[in-house]
Specification:
Residues 1-26 form the signal peptide. Keywords: Glycoprotein, Hydrolase, Repeat, Signal. This is FG-GAP repeat-containing protein. The chain has a single domain (52-488), classed as Integrin alpha, N-terminal (Methylamine Dehydrogenase, Chain H, 7 Propeller), CATH 2.130.10. The chain is built from 2 helices and 28 strands. It is 2% helix and 31% strand. A hairpin with a 7-residue loop joins strand 25 (435-440) and strand 26.
Length: 494
């Protein structure tokens, strides 16, 4: 299948692997330590409901094209609807660092974590296209502070000393983000990936954006994506780096980062695993986090050394000893029994990924985006596929496919909609079942998201709704593939 996302782009800063460890709710069967000291994860205003941040990097600020923005949709007893309370954050918002400039694409990645430890989740925004001085595309990261009235004020998370050197254009610092408590001190830590080098910030953070300590430069080429989550039950988040493409092969390796200080010989390579983005959740309900990674395939022609035709996801199961470096991953693709569709060139299965318990059975499920999927002859219409967790682990049995030509899903499948470019699972109404959010960043002029409530079977098509970028307050002059719905606080390839 053909698609508009260029292979070169996918092999560049598009490697954004965002993983915010899930809390003990419908989004996970066990708590994953340290993403928030807030009572409820992703709760920016402290009302007890999870909120959802949606990136709109192509959003215009007046006539400033693709300055970017983030829309925060506040959870409630009725969930998130088109009329729900929401806040729009841009670089023109009072108290937010920087200025809206063409092609900054503020909001290409987003994450949450209570960095300052005040009990409210904070919003972390990656701006990997931002120029810094003469360095085009060097990238920056901004934190916006949560509080009783929601998000207000912010600070820049500065790159580590020595990170920026002459010629480091298009590093894309902030191309991936992860939050978790690596050292178990009760303060969330932040990891930032890029095309050049990664960085780890040890919490707590001050309101000036400065961390207690910074460990810089995880090796160049090994840190495009980053994931945190507890896979051995010790109450500390493990830190994984996903290198993404290696020598042109999008099936880059997975590394376990072993230390908070020093730079030498920290990485343990998982010899059989691959990843471009990922998240930790408990798909088999054994109380240990499992690492789920996505490896989308946009090769044209297909790369025989790459992932399964059309893309795949891999699952590495945690346990009391964590994940062994030689553990063989369990692989799922569109040719796995029970999974809707068929693996075809350019589908991009695994380009978006989120983990959460959609039916309340205690097992995390996995929602997978395939933005390059054709619907009939409609190119790049896109699809999202839900695979269910079970005591035996993830399974293709009972999988459900969602696309805009399915009866009851609002809208219609159109060329270059990219339905599934980003996906997110979160219980925003506290009913014990994760609700589904699917990004459609190419929809119309400004992009769109699809919202479906969790039920005892799967996210319900009946009663589902679309929310467009213009309605949400982030109109675009030309959305292309970067409209509203490009990113959520779940991993997606940016």
């Amino acid at each position: 299948m053909h698609r508009s996302f260029t292979a070169a782009a996918v092999l560049g800063v598009l490697a954004a692997a965002l993983a915010v460890p899930a809390s003990a709710s419908a989004d996970s069967a066990v708590p994953y330590k340290g993403a928030n000291t807030a009572a409820v994860q992703d709760d920016f205003n402290g009302d007890g409901y999870r909120d959802v941040a949606v990136g709109a990097p192509s959003a215009a600020n007046g006539q400033v094209e693709s300055a970017g923005g983030v829309v925060v949709l506040y959870g409630s007893a009725t969930g998130v609807t088109a009329s729900s309370q929401r806040t729009v954050i841009t670089q023109a918002t009072a108290g937010i660092p920087g200025d809206p400039e063409p092609w900054d694409r503020f909001g290409r990645t987003v994450a949450t974590g209570d960095l300052d430890g005040d009990g409210y989740a904070d919003l972390i925004v990656g701006i990997p296209d931002e120029a810094v001085g003469a360095e085009a595309g060097r990238g920056t990261v901004t934190v916006v502070w949560g509080g009783p009235s929601g998000l207000k004020g912010g600070a820049t998370i500065s790159v580590p000393s020595g990170y920026s050197v002459a010629g480091d254009n298009d590093c894309g610092f902030g191309g991936s983000l992860a939050v978790g408590d690596i050292n178990g001190d009760g303060h969330p830590d932040l990891a930032v990936g890029s095309n050049c080098e990664g960085a780890v910030y040890t919490g707590p953070f001050g309101r000036d954006g400065k961390a207690a300590a910074v460990r810089s430069q995880f090796s160049t080429g090994m840190s495009r994506g980053v994931v945190m989550g507890d896979v051995n039950g010790d109450g500390k988040a493990e830190l994984f780096w996903l290198s993404g493409p290696e020598d042109g092969n999008i099936r880059g390796p997975v590394y376990l980062d072993n230390g908070l200080s020093g730079n030498a010989n920290r990485a343990v390579r998982f010899t059989l695993a691959h990843g471009f983005l990922g998240q930790v959740g408990d798909v088999n309900g054994d109380g240990y986090g499992d690492l789920v990674t996505g490896i989308s395939d946009f090769s044209e022609p297909a790369d025989p050394s790459g992932p399964h035709l059309g893309g795949e996801i891999e699952v590495l199961y945690g346990g009391p000893n964590g994940i062994a470096p030689d553990q063989a991953p369990h692989v799922y693709d569109q040719d796995t029994a029970g999974v809707p569709g068929a693996g075809e060139q350019g589908d991009g299965f695994g380009y978006g990924l989120s983990v959460g318990d959609t039916n309340g059975d205690g097992y995390d499920d996995v929602l997978v985006g395939s933005p390059g999927e054709a619907v009939g002859s409609i190119r790049n219409a896109g699809q999202a596929t839900l695979l269910l967790g079970s005591a035996a682990g993830l399974t293709g049995a009972g999988s459900v496919g969602y696309q805009q030509n399915v009866t009851g899903v609002p809208g219609a499948a159109e060329t270059d909609d990219f339905f599934g470019a980003a996906v997110h699972l979160a219980d925003v109404n506290k009913d014990g079942k994760a609700d589904a959010f699917v990004g459609i960043p190419g929809e119309d002029a400004s992009g769109c998201i699809w919202i479906a409530r969790g039920t005892s079977t799967s996210p319900a098509i009946s009663g589902s709704l679309n929310l467009g970028g213009a309605t949400a307050g982030v109109p675009s002059l030309d959305a292309g593939q970067w409209g509203f719905g490009t990113s959520f606080t779940s991993p997606n390839a940016e």
